[in-house]
């Protein structure tokens, strides 16, 4: 149940990210997190299972958490850079409360998503990996051209508070976290 909640919540963040990225000229294609379904099989010894779309090929790891708890990106392809931008966007959008830590998939379709949170049960999500990744991410993330295209600000350790879209500055200066001083 928690795996479904994590992947499907990350999917919703990704949809908002995609809508904002598509509104910006020259951003191009965006990652899509595929849905993960929980199915109930009452006649089976294991009554619950998860099911998702077949991606049609072997998964590539774009952003992963290593065994030692470090967050690593695999390469510098457009997909990897946009996954990193998505991570930055979610971190900023949730004011440092959530970080999508693991993303793998085939092409632009992502699966096996994990998160780190700095509050237990933030929006009903329990951390699925090391919470120290939030601090590590702010120190290690190198903004790329896609972060710049979206107008994301350089990361600093954020104080947890409510959520606002990082791209709102283009629509309404009043509610933009980018323009607050």
From TrEMBL:
Transmembrane segments: none annotated. It comes from the Eukaryota. One of its GO terms (molecular function) is ATP binding. PROSITE patterns: ALPHA_KINASE. GO terms for biological process: cardiac muscle cell development. SMART domains: Alpha_kinase. The keyword Transferase applies. GO terms for cellular component: nucleus. SUPFAM superfamilies: Protein kinase-like (PK-like). The keyword Ligase does not apply. Keywords: Disulfide bond, Immunoglobulin domain, Kinase, Serine/threonine-protein kinase, Transferase. Residues 172-181 have a biased composition (Polar residues). Pfam families: Alpha_kinase. Residues 1-155 form the Alpha-type protein kinase domain. Residues 158-181 are annotated as: Disordered. This is Alpha-protein kinase 3. The lineage of its organism: Eukaryota, Metazoa, Chordata, Craniata, Vertebrata.
């Amino acid at each position: 149940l928690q795996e479904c909640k994590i992947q499907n919540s990350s999917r919703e963040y990704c949809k908002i990210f995609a809508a904002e990225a598509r509104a910006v000229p020259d951003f191009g294609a965006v990652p899509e997190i595929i849905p993960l379904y929980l199915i109930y099989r009452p006649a089976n010894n294991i009554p619950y299972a998860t099911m998702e779309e077949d991606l049609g090929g072997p998964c590539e790891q774009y952003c992963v958490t290593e065994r030692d708890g470090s967050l690593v990106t695999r390469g510098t392809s457009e997909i990897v850079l946009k996954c990193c931008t998505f991570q930055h966007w979610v971190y900023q959008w949730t004011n440092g409360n959530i970080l999508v830590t693991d993303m793998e998939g085939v092409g632009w379709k992502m699966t096996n998503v994990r998160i780190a949170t700095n509050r237990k049960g933030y929006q009903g999500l329990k951390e699925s990996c090391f919470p120290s990744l939030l601090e590590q991410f702010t120190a290690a993330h190198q903004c790329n051209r896609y972060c710049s295209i979206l107008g994301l600000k350089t990361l600093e350790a954020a104080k947890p508070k409510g959520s606002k879209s990082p791209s709102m500055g283009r629509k309404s200066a009043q509610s933009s976290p980018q323009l607050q001083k």
